[in-house]
């Protein structure tokens, strides 16, 4: 739980008693490579914090082509937020890329903590804002940059992804073919 406490304390300070109370709402889980946390159509009631490993969020189109929306490395939060906040079934798959360890919290418990502790609400407000910034950055990159620029930007911002994520998943995330990614990768070597 120290990893979770350290994560919270990057934004807010907590006493031992406060963290003990907060941590009582979290559960721990180890997820095997290729194991699903969510599948399309599942009910969504939790948010997930990655302790170590990597998760990928993706959708399949009508031709079963994979479109990766995001990755979550250590120290990141993830879920199907649309489903979580609108109380609708999941529209995405959330799957472990490698063996992954997570803490997770039920949305109702998160709301309770936010109502009871202003500093916890502040923490999640900051995390949500940064998540929105990341999403906007990704959308703008997809709209305004070519594949080579998106690849270089991803490599610069998240070099750890290239250590754990298979090339086919990186290609799906960047919106390019596996062959295009290989050409971009070979030019960097």
UniProtKB/TrEMBL annotation:
The record's section on InterPro entries has: cNMP-bd_dom (IPR000595), cNMP-bd_dom_sf (IPR018490), HTH_CRP (IPR012318), RmlC-like_jellyroll (IPR014710)
The protein's matches in Pfam families, at most eight in alphabetical order, are given as: cNMP_binding, Crp
Annotated signal peptide: none
Query: What Gene Ontology molecular-function terms does this entry list?
Result: DNA binding; kinase activity
Q: Which SUPFAM superfamilies did the record assign?
A: cAMP-binding domain-like (SSF51206)
Domain Cyclic nucleotide-binding residue range list: 10-113
Keyword annotations from UniProtKB, A to Z: DNA-binding, Kinase, Transcription, Transcription regulation, Transferase
Q: Name one GO biological process term.
A: regulation of DNA-templated transcription
Q: What is this protein called?
A: cAMP-binding domain of CRP or a regulatory subunit of cAMP-dependent protein kinases
| Organism from which the protein derives | Chitinophaga jiangningensis
């Amino acid at each position: 739980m120290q990893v979770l406490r350290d994560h919270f304390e990057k934004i807010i300070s907590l006493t031992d008693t406060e963290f003990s109370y907060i941590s009582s709402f979290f559960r721990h889980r180890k997820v095997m490579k290729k194991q699903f946390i969510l599948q399309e159509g599942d009910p969504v009631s939790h948010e997930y914090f990655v302790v170590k490993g990597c998760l990928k969020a993706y959708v399949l189109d009508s031709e079963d082509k994979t479109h990766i929306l995001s990755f979550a490395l250590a120290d990141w939060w993830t879920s199907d937020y649309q489903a979580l906040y609108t109380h609708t079934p999941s529209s995405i798959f959330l799957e472990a890329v490698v063996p992954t360890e997570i803490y997770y919290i039920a949305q109702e418990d998160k709301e309770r903590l936010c109502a009871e502790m202003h500093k916890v609400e502040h923490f999640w407000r900051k995390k949500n804002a940064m998540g929105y910034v990341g999403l906007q950055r990704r959308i703008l990159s997809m709209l305004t940059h070519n594949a080579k620029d998106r690849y270089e930007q991803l490599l610069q911002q998240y070099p750890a992804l290239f250590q754990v994520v298979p090339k086919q998943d990186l290609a799906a995330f960047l919106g390019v073919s596996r062959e295009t990614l290989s050409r971009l990768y070979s030019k960097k070597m």
